[in-house]
Amino acid sequence: MSRPVAQPDAGPTAAGRLQEGDVLLVVDVQHDFLPGGALGILGGDEILPALNHYLALWRARGLPVIASRDWHPPDHCSFHPQGGPWPVHCVAGTHGAGFHPALALPRGVPVVSKATRRDHEAYSAFDGTDLDDRLRALHARRLFIGGLATDYCVRATVDDAVARGYGVVVLGDAVRAVEREPGDGARALVAMRARGAVVLEREHIEP
């Protein structure tokens, strides 16, 4: 099957005009990444209204939506007890791994589970999953990406999407960063733009 062809950046108006082949990818909007969760991101819940706005646009246009999630075994290599950098979070089947109920995901939305092997970290929604196969089956050309976190799973997913030839629009009002170091989120956005992604907010997205 031929590779999708990334769309050139023709300015925010052209880049934000929805068309066939546009897929909304919602990355890891799970309890443990929201305030109060095991790895809660400051302001993570603030993206829910923006994501729901985009979900309504995609529903109105009949365009596809996919969600990703961390789905870790309890002894995952990224966890502190195993010497990893993160507290225990998003363990498969637990409340913390569930999507926030205020997120208006369509009924039956396809879900890609990542980082499911105890010995392998996977920030990108492409890493060790069938996401690319799903996108090609949908004849996807562009991914509009929002979710958590800007400086880790969103950035890694954007990098892999660009590498596979997809056009990428990062939904700037629908992402938040972990910010282990101040400025990590802003630096991640700069890096994603340098890779060829476009960063837009809702006023630039035309149904």
Overview of this protein structure:
This protein is 25% helix and 17% strand. It has a 6-stranded parallel sheet, sandwiched between helices. Helix 5 links the parallel strand 5 and strand 6. It is globular. The two termini are 29 Å apart. About 3% of the residues have low confidence.
Q: Which features would summarize this protein structure in a list?
A:
alpha/beta, Rossmann fold
Task: Provide a brief overview of the structure.
The protein is of the alpha/beta class.
**Fourth-tier CATH superfamily name:** Isochorismatase-like
Q: Tell me the fraction of residues in β-strands, as a range.
A: 15-25%
Query: What strand order characterises the main sheet?
Result: 3-2-1-4-5-6
Tally the beta strands: 6
Arithmetic mean of pLDDT: 93
Q: Briefly, what CATH class?
A: Alpha Beta
* Helical proportion, percent range: 10-25%
Gap between N and C termini, in Å?
29 Å
Structurally, how many domains make up the residues?
A: 1
Low-confidence stretches: 5-10
Q: What's the shape?
A: globular
CATH architecture level-2 label: 3-Layer(aba) Sandwich
Q: Remind me, CATH topology? A: Rossmann fold
Q: Count of helices?
A: 5
Class per helix and strand makeup: alpha/beta
One letter per element, helices H and strands E, the order comes to HEHEEHEHEHE
> Taking Cα atoms only, what radius of gyration do you get, to the nearest Å?
16 Å
**Main sheet specs:** 6 strands, parallel
